[in-house]
# Entry
Amino acid sequence: MDEQSTKDIGPTDHASPQLRLLRLPEVMHRVGLRRSAIYQRMSEGRFPKCRSLGPKCSVWVEAEINAWVQSVAESSGLHKFDAPL
# Structure
């Protein structure tokens, strides 16, 4: 094998910055909603669905949360640079 084929590839070489999983506290911080509001909107189809990684571990895809924040900002007349993330 040559040196190039045996090189270790780090996690940043495989995933873009948008392919991250977020836990509930981070989602709450980013969107400004409490847990109950997030789960209520999920059940109504107005918020991205979480994924279960185990019995007590739910995560959200960062890109889906970012897209939701952007859509809320656009629907309220805010520009992309006006909406805090």
